[in-house]
Amino acid sequence: MKKITRIAQFILLVLVLGLPAFSENNFENDLKPYFSAVVVKNAEESSRWYQAVLGLKLRNMNENVLRGSKIIVLSLDDVMLELIEVKSQVLRKDVLDGKPEQTLIQGFTKIGFRVSDLDATIHNLKALKVNFFGDVFTDPVSGKRSFLVQDPDKNLIQFFE
Questions:
Q1: How many structural domains compose the chain?
Q2: Which structural domain, as residue segments, surrounds residue 160?
Q3: Best CA proximity match to 74, nearest among 38, 40, 50, 99
Q4: Which of residues 16 and 54 earns the better pLDDT score?
Q5: Do 43 and 85 touch, CB atoms closer than 8 A?
Q6: Which CATH number goes with the domain that contains 130?
């Protein structure tokens, strides 16, 4: 009987101590954005755009002729963006040709950034002649505003206040 009680105590201890490791909140304090990756038609052109518009800096570049790929990594503080150019890519216009205007491709849709002054960001992006995608949206619950722009390949970037 003592052996069963000890086994039961051990199982209870494992459950009490072990379950939090598998809870949904396990990453609450550890999970931080690390990087995003975007497939682009021309990595060098997109790199210039992201540097000029978002102020990202060149971190490194890797070109693999055998694989037909070029990867440029840009970063600024805690933001890292990988631009991937590959020979065997499907262009957005080829996939969406003839589809309704608001059609999206399944998968990751956009990357987003929080900014301290949304109005100043809008002003700066307009001065850079960045292509806006829609109007400024105000969240009906929080009252916070956001908007979308497109990079040269029409990838969506959202800015939040």
A1: 2
A2: 110-161
A3: 50
A4: 54
A5: yes
A6: 3.10.180.10
